[in-house]
Design a protein that fits this description.
Helix content: 25-40%
Structural class: alpha/beta
CATH topology of the largest domain: Aldehyde Dehydrogenase, Chain A, domain 1
CATH architecture of the largest domain: 3-Layer(aba) Sandwich
Strand order of the largest sheet: 2-1-9-8-7-10-11-19
Radius of gyration: 24 Å
Shape: globular
CATH class of the largest domain: Alpha Beta
Number of strands: 20
Strand content: 15-25%
Number of helices: 16
């Protein structure tokens, strides 16, 4: 790969001696060889972002003026739709016919205009609701306002499963808010990040407003989370790394948005237990289960459990496993050999703790290349099983029986995660009441939505802050209380 970064308005080659490869997870071939950016280059990128912000070349524009440039940016991004789809297949291993391809490409390209429109409709100042006796006194009259202003320099660190999408929801709202950005993509899927830089060139984004650093080590990422010139870190990834990011950002008290792991529960009410059979197919074939909001813990009535497990096994029995580029492929690879080993580890741990493999549980015999794991259905005796408590991030789903709905809710909430949750029931009122008891950043009752206008985020070990929606946009702004007396 010719370039490893974009700094101060120019594409750059990595200056490190160390190189790394980007593999196609479908067949283990080399997609690209990348020379690492150095810490010195990252330092220059942060300096460039800081100068651009402080000079006001972007932050000093009105929201309307930035919106006009960002419209051009949106058009420039959309020109790369075919390339983004190709890269989602090549570097992320997302099956070309998968419904997740919508999140990989089509949703973010559509959402750019949504972000611009939302920002332009948001008030840039609001009245603080002071009571009349505080507004008027014998000495002066005061008006108190909340002013929403750009925050500063944002370090954006994205994930590998939907690389363009997870980077997009950091880069685009941060820039539209008036901030400068340094993006560090996951080294497993870094190539699509160059499209943000290419679009910045085409749209005329001022120098220093967008910067890109590609590396497979830790040094640049650590500088991006510790440097005092950085005001905010927005990170999507694992809980372990997210906690490290928070620790590194703490001495300079940076603002944090952390979108981390999940172990989402799906509760099927007794009147909807027959629907549970479809959960295994939908979860396992959704980009090989590599989604943090996927409902990988399935709770069904105890007297329905055996029937559900049998139906799930039948549903995944004939899933076509294959390379991501094949339009007939339903289940593609996980991202790496390490991730496949993680699937194997937790399947074995589930059995050791009293669980049972109902379907799958191994590498497909006919695939000698690529990082494949069969769609796996686990019969779990209880919610304490390792496969129920840990995020596996692969095509593995566990089924647990409940005594009554209170028992189901208690198990759903018995998790260190809290990113998403699912409730299914024909009785909509009963399903709603169950959903209201789930402690999670998002709860989906008989349906879900992917929208720029609906925010998401986690509680507990699933993260801090929000992405998307008004709340997600406001994360990239600071509030100034402005008092005018007279």
């Amino acid at each position: 790969m010719e370039h490893s970064g974009y700094i101060d308005g120019a594409f750059v080659k990595g200056e490190a001696m160390r190189r790394f490869t980007v593999q196609n997870p479908s067949d283990e071939t080399i997609v690209a060889e990348v020379t690492n950016c150095t810490v010195a280059q990252t330092d220059r990128a942060i300096g460039s972002a800081r100068r651009a912000f402080d000079d006001g070349v972007w932050s000093g524009l009105s929201m309307k003026q930035r919106g006009e440039v960002m419209r051009r940016y949106a058009e420039a991004l959309r020109k790369h739709a075919d390339r983004l789809k190709e890269l989602a297949v090549l570097e992320a291993g997302c099956p070309v016919s998968s419904t997740v391809m919508g999140a990989q490409v089509h949703a973010p390209l559509r959402m750019t205009d949504d972000i611009i429109d939302m920002f332009l409709r948001l008030p840039e100042h609001e009245e603080n609701p002071l009571p009349i006796h505080e507004r008027v006194n014998p000495y002066f009259t005061v008006q108190s306002l909340k002013l929403y202003r750009p925050l500063g320099v944002v370090s954006a660190i994205s994930a590998y499963n939907v690389p363009f999408y997870t980077a997009f929801w950091k880069v685009v709202p941060a820039m539209m808010a008036g901030n400068s950005v340094i993006l560090r993509p996951n080294p497993l899927t870094p190539i699509s990040s160059l499209i943000f830089a290419e679009a910045a060139e085409e749209a005329g984004i001022p120098k220093g407003v967008f910067n890109l650093i590609i590396e497979d080590g830790l040094e640049s990422g650590q500088l991006m989370t510790t440097d005092p010139r950085v005001d905010m870190v927005s990170f999507t990834g694992s809980c372990t790394v997210g906690a490290k990011v928070a620790e590194q950002a703490a001495p300079t008290l940076k603002r944090l948005v952390l979108e981390l792991g999940g172990k989402s529960a799906q509760i099927y009410l007794p009147d909807a237990a027959d629907r549970a059979a479809s959960a295994a197919l939908s979860v396992c074939t959704a980009h090989a289960g590599q989604g943090c909001v996927l409902g990988t813990r399935v709770f069904v009535p105890e007297d329905s459990k055996a029937t559900v497990l049998e139906a799930m096994a039948a549903a995944v029995a004939n899933v076509k496993i294959g390379v991501a580029s094949d339009p007939d492929t339903q289940l593609g690879p996980v991202i790496s050999a390490a991730q496949r080993a993680r699937c194997e580890h937790f399947t074995e741990a589930a059995v050791a703790a009293g669980g049972r493999v109902v379907a799958g549980g191994k590498r497909p015999a006919h695939m000698d290349k690529g990082f494949y794991y069969e769609p796996t259905v686990l019969d779990l005796p209880d919610n304490s099983n390792p496969a129920a408590q840990e995020e596996i991030f692969g095509p593995v789903i566990g089924v647990i029986g409940y005594k009554d709905l209170d028992h189901a809710v208690a198990m759903a909430n018995d998790s260190r995660f809290g990113l998403s949750g699912w409730v299914h029931g024909q009785d909509r009122v009963a399903a709603l009441n169950v959903g209201l008891k789930i402690r999670s950043g998002a709860v989906n009752v008989n349906g879900a939505v992917m929208s720029s206008y609906a925010s998401g985020g986690g509680i507990k070990m699933s993260g801090l802050g929000r992405e998307r929606g008004i709340e997600g946009l406001r994360e990239f702004q600071m509030i100034t209380t402005f008092n005018l007396g007279g």
